Amino acid sequence: MECIKCKNEMTKAKFLSFGGFQIESETKSIFETPERSNIEVYVCNKCGYVELKATDYKKF
Ligand SMILES: [Zn+2]
Prior knowledge:
The protein is mainly β. The chain is built from no helices and four strands.
């Protein structure tokens, strides 16, 4: 992934939290099952910019 700030190639990193981070879609009723996705993090080692990406973004 390319850094949008300085066009440097970004390095994949991980959160220092057990199990990483997940996002969940908002539901309109309690009968709906929310979609979940893990989050990947990329860091630019030139300018320090950090970018987050959902791995299962197509489910949303
Ligand atoms: Zn950068």
